[in-house]
Design goal:
- The chain has two domains: 7-30 and 298-390, Aspartate Aminotransferase, domain 1 (Alpha-Beta Complex); 43-292, Type I PLP-dependent aspartate aminotransferase-like (Major domain) (Aspartate Aminotransferase, domain 2).
- The protein contains 13 helices and 15 strands.
- By secondary structure, the protein is α/β, with parallel strands linked by helices.
- The chain starts with 6 loop residues before the first helix and ends with a helix.
- 38% of the residues lie in helices and 16% in strands.
- The chain binds pyridoxal-5'-phosphate.
- Residues 26, 86-88, 113, 115-116, 163, 167, 198, 200-201, 221, 233 line the site of pyridoxal-5'-phosphate.
Length: 392
């Protein structure tokens, strides 16, 4: 079957017109329609307000529509979603809000993002916690990932930290199995071990049904695979885990007040983790970005297209001399990491960038990462393969 003509679809994205883009895991491009949605809300705010009852009511609707659209994408109820700025803020809300006791244990994989690792290190220092690393990197192609985590749980484990989809190698972790094993592991106090998921690379890439995979905390952003504007992300907290998680950053958006404005309680839903004034027009940009994806196809159709493109790239890389892909099996995501026998990854990425190809290096493991979206063309992939082959 001939590949569909993606030209009209891609024409919506100014960023795609003048380069060959393989950095979707860093940031997705913003469509003209999403840009326009942001400007049009800001313009309306200025015309009607900027601050008055009418504008405030419209902004409430803007926020609730955004939570609803995200919840729909994740397969969860609206009341479990908190709007944040990015992945890392969502992770910090989950990390700092648990009732830590000295000696509690966190189990975290060796493939987490530096920002999250730094937050965990500071948390452990402040509360005198033990952090145990589950080494999964060397097991990704054929090891038992669930055992690598479960073997490190103890009765003092309170939190397990994993990424749903690894940012460094593109592997998808068996999240439902990890959640199940953690939730059923006996602890000294009878508390459930909670699982915090870094979902930076999974939201907008994988079809999701979080209710079914029984996640506790799932922190994500709109600016990567969803192609929203930078500055809007979200956090899912399951209804069961909400009672374990106190708000840490606190402000008027997260509280109920009495008749004279005194705080009386947290909001009964995910809004309790939202804080105060935000760049609200960006929410409309994210909704428009999601609408564009949905017009193209279902989450499963988009995922299938991403895996098709990734397979073309992965297979082509396998045929290049001196190149080894990190994944030994066909990719199940749009992130394809590879290394050169001769190294010099930064030099390669820099060289490709001068030719209009946007990729990035990863430090651990030392490799180059190329990301393909469902609207990456076969021609782009073939040109990239030729450019890598020509690099000497
Ligand atoms: C796995 C992972 N976690 C966290 C982040 C940080 O994302 P943000 O800037 O949205 O907090 C990234 C960004 O690349 C990532 O890939």
């Amino acid at each position: 079957m001939p590949a569909p003509d993606l030209t009209p679809f891609r024409a919506q994205f100014p960023a795609l017109a003048n380069k060959t883009y393989f950095n979707y895991g860093g940031q997705g491009p913003l469509a003209e329609r999403a840009l326009e949605a942001i400007c049009s809300i800001e313009r309306q705010i200025q015309i009607d307000g900027p601050f008055n009852g009418k504008v405030n009511a419209a902004l409430q609707l803007n926020s609730s529509a955004t939570r609803r659209m995200i919840a729909n994408l994740l397969g969860v109820p609206d009341n479990t979603i908190s709007l944040t700025e990015d992945v890392t803020v969502g992770c910090n809300i989950a990390l700092w809000g648990l009732a830590w006791q000295a000696g509690d244990q966190i189990v975290m994989t060796d493939c987490e993002h530096p920002g999250v690792i730094a937050a965990v290190m500071e948390l452990a220092r402040r509360f005198d916690l033990t952090v145990t690393i589950a080494p999964i990197l060397d097991l990704l192609n054929d090891g038992d990932l669930v055992a690598a985590i479960v073997d490190r749980l103890t009765p003092r484990t309170r939190l397990v930290i994993v990424s749903h989809l690894l940012w460094n190698t593109g592997h998808v972790l068996p999240l439902a199995e990890i959640n199940h094993a953690c939730h059923h592991f006996p602890t000294d106090t009878g508390q459930t071990i909670r699982v915090m998921v870094d979902a930076a690379q999974s939201v907008g890439l994988l079809p999701l049904d979080l209710d079914v995979i029984d996640v506790d905390f799932y922190a994500f952003t709109g600016h990567k695979w969803l192609c929203g504007a930078a500055g809007v992300g979200g956090l899912y907290v399951s209804e069961a885990a909400r009672s374990d998680l106190a708000p840490t950053f606190i402000g008027w958006r997260g509280i109920e007040t009495d008749a004279i404005g005194n705080p009386t309680d947290w909001k009964p839903n995910g809004q309790r983790y939202e804080v105060a004034t935000s760049a609200y027009p960006l929410y409309a940009g994210l909704r428009e970005a999601i609408a564009i994806h949905e017009e193209w196809g279902t989450a499963s159709e988009r995922y299938t297209a991403i895996c098709d493109r990734a397979l073309r790239l992965w297979s082509g890389l396998q045929n290049l001399e001196g190149i080894e892909c990190y994944a030994s099996a066909p990719p199940r995501s749009g992130l394809v990491s590879f290394r050169r026998a001769e190294g010099q990854h930064q030099t390669l990425v820099h060289h490709l960038e001068t030719q209009g190809f946007m990729l990035r290096t990863i430090l651990y493991p030392d490799c180059v990462r190329a990301c393909v979206h469902y609207f990456t063309t076969e021609e782009e992939i073939d040109r990239l393969l030729r450019a890598i082959a020509d690099f000497s």
